[in-house]
Amino acid sequence: MEFFCYSIFETGFLWKDFATMQSLHSYKILSYNNRNKCCGPMKNPMKKSTFFPIPVMPLFSVLCFFLLLTFPKLSIEGARNGLLLWFQTIVPTLFPFLICSGLVTSMGGISYLVKPIYPVFHTFFGMSESGIYTFLLGIFCGFPMGAKTCRDLLEGGALSPKEAKCLMAVCNQPSSMFLLGYTASALHNGISIKLILFYLYLPLIPLWFLARKFYHMYANKAVTASAHITAPYISPNTPTNTPTPPLSLDHMILSSMELLIRIGGYLMIFSVISLFIRRFPSPTSMIPITLLTFTEITCAIQTICTDTAPPLQGLLVTASLAFGGLSCLFQVKSALSTPIPATGSADPGNSKRDSATQNPSSLSIRHYLFWKLIHTGLATGLFLAVRAWQKLYEASI
């Protein structure tokens, strides 16, 4: 990639030589030699990378293909479980919130919702009105509402880029209904859901301030919530004199259904993977439990609460809830990369390219994974610290 960017940069300096070249291959070699002369040695671009001497991803895809052919019943059962989870839980829970959130942001209702708590959050955490709304929506509505709201408000101008990146570190959590309903009913009698909530939410405070320092969000210069969304995302290639249509209810429904379909696809995929992990024989039960902890949160909690006992059960449940699993990671990625049509573009080619843009808001899924790992470490560390304090207190009595 470095070589390719450098070759594009050198095009203006080597234009005369380029006219005499016979092929692009000779041009690459010439640019490589010039780069060595002026900037020191560089890795040979024609040499194959030896970091992965074996084609890992092609072999993995072939392995998955043969597993599906060899165990069709497991594949069908896993896909059915994921589809039922999506149809019976995700769609009825998430779809109304997606529509309602779109209406609130497009009609400028954020300031009315967060006005009672704005002084506290703004004074202690430096959040704007839109930032408070994004954070609360991610806490109460769950994955991936926080990411989608953060992206929509950033593209609509209601969030600054730095505040949006900081919010991505804290605003994507399991929903309160999932925690108080499904998780609380699955936990062993010796584990309190209140303590789980304490382990999950308290680390968000140092995580927020750490993200603010990391992204240099020292002063709150976020745009106020009055700059609400009134139109879909417009590509930089769109002519400025083109009228932009308002954000209609039809557009909200279509974009929400597109996001839900992506979430459903990921749920089916990871439900199949989770079922294979649970059914395949292993030398110890901790191997599938550990894999499920970081794969799919619903199956993980069910397996953890069935096959383990306190205090290990509480530790694994805390880690699974804090990380969210790879399934939720891909759901957040789909919420950040849902293509938004560039309306009004005069060039059809530009419209196609803009609609295929993977992440127009520039919010990084790698940064999100980085903060999730830190959150998981802080939550499990807090669990172990409280557990050690409890043992010391019991020993002193």
**What's the N-to-C terminus distance?**
63 Å
Structural class: mainly alpha
Proportion of helical residues: 55-70%
- Summarize the helix and strand pattern as letters: HHHHHHHHHHHHHHHHHHHH
What is the mean pLDDT? 77
CA radius of gyration: 25 Å
Give the key terms.
397 residues, mainly alpha, 20 helices
Structure write-up:
The chain is an all-alpha fold. Helix content is 68%, strand content 0%. It contains 20 helices and no strands. Helix 16 runs antiparallel to helix 17 (312-323). The termini are far apart.
Q: What is the element layout, followed by pairings?
A:
Blueprint: H1 2-9, H2 15-19, H3 24-39, H4 56-70, H5 72-106, H6 110-114, H7 118-125, H8 129-141, H9 145-156, H10 161-168, H11 176-186, H12 193-201, H13 204-214, H14 249-279, H15 286-293, H16 297-307, H17 312-323, H18 325-337, H19 348-355, H20 365-396
Short description:
The protein has 397 residues and is mostly helical.
